[in-house]
Amino acid sequence: MAMNMILLLFLLTVSAVSAADEVAFIGVNIGTDLSDMPSPTQAVALLKAQNIRHVRLYDADRAMLLALANTGIQVTVSIPNEQLLGIGQSNATAANWVARNVIAHVPAANITAIAVGSEVLTVLPNAGPVLVSALKFIHSALVAANLDGQIKVSTPHSSSIILDSFPPSQAFFNRSWDPVMVPLLKFLQSSDSYFMLNVYPYYDFMQSNGVIPLDYALFRPLPPNKEAVDANTLLHYTNVFDAVVDAAYFAMSYLNFTNVPIIVLESGWPSKGDSTEPDATVENANTYNSNLIRHVLNNTGTPKHPGIAVSTYIYELYNEDLRPGSVSEKNWGLFNANGVPVYILHLIGAGTVLANDTTNQTFCVAKEGSDKKMLQAALDWACGPGKVDCSSLLQGQPCYDPDNVISHSTYAFNAYFQQMGKSPGTCDFKGVATITTTDPSHGSCIFPGSGGRNGTITNGTSTAPSSNSTSSGSPSQYLYRGDFFISSVIIGVVFLSTVFL
Q1: How is residue 196 annotated by DSSP?
Q2: d(CA 267, CA 274)
Q3: How far apart (Å, rounded) are the C-alpha atoms in residues 37 and 388?
Q4: For residue 402, is the peptide bond before it cis, meaning its omega torsion is within 30 degrees of 0?
Q5: Which of 22, 82, 119, 227 is catalytic?
Q6: pLDDT per position as a tens digit, 41-85
Q7: What are the residue boundaries of the X8 domain, all occurrences included (predicted)?
Q8: Known catalytic residue: 22?
Q9: What is the dihedral of CA 52, 56, 59, 60, to 10 degrees?
Q10: Residues 265, 197: contact at Cβ < 8 Å?
Q11: Of the listed 22, 266, 283, 316, which one is catalytic?
């Protein structure tokens, strides 16, 4: 009996995912709802600079495919929802689409997948009955062109089609879609394709009314007693992403499909939102995407299928200012239209993909709107325990003007950031600092790390104050009351005691 159970578990593990020996990859989605959309050539240049080898287009734009030709970049092209009904009702229409948008571009363009529609069952339910027909018609055209071995055919789903997603072991698909989902999974299985899933922990967190902790959504480390445990399997979940992916695996197994791998076609976090979305911030977007990339690339897999690749496409390459809806809808991008990063991902030591400083020049500056008392405390720390040489800030020196705490703390923050090799966490200072690619140097004040010259920095190994640390050490000479500069340590001690005690 025990031997039979071991054999059964082995067979389930082998059959669960055929991609077990594949290496996971990170790709990006490329939307075009920008008022100043870069040319295809510019977009491809950015992809190359970032070593991005996998992209998903929301259509099969000819100019973009021509720009991607002979780059080796693997491309997923898409059939927009508005074309789905026609393709799903006509084999000839599907064949014409493949001839025009695929055959005309391969092998120069390395097209490896076709996404048929987008979240059809939840966005365009009236097209649900023809969805599987559309997949089959497109696949038949690929077979006729002898391209079915190279190009997979699938359709991306919203995670909202999964009901009772936690615990994952109890998850199942909305039963009303069984007439579509069962033949769809049969097609994916028979064509050796994968289940495309869109996973957005941001929305799960927002809609949970406080039930889902922010750290759990952002992949931040959790103490063991805070991890979510599936009582049926005793599997521990440390993040929303894994829980949703496993919920999809369990939902497929509920329909007796255990060998269809999952690829996440969209996932990300917005860097800006309106007053109703306080957690759509640059720092949270950076944290989520940085942790997501590390999580995927180290082939962690999920608790249900550890070590099994869950390749993921980040939503998205550019901020799309023309997208309708809330502020956050326009701010999911890693880059602005001019190719400047919205934020610098925390990816030191995590590989070469998306090391997204295109200029190789990043600086740490005081965050706009920061409390001046907190800036002052951080400035004191940098020029004291942080061992930054702040002599350029003294009266008569190049960086004395403008004589205010914002300007002076920016200089000190950046000097520390550069001296620490731009390591993750060295541009925080209790939340009053942020990273930028804009050189803050001005006039004769040349900031460390700029192209002008390197500032004089005293070597040290102190850790910058983060959101969990406290400022300590002797007060520095660089203190303010309004814009009044005080260079006396003794007066500074008196001043600090009145502010913080």
Answers
A1: E
A2: 20
A3: 41
A4: yes
A5: 119
A6: 999 998 988 889 999 999 999 999 999 999 999 999 999 999 999
A7: 362-447
A8: no
A9: 50
A10: yes
A11: 266
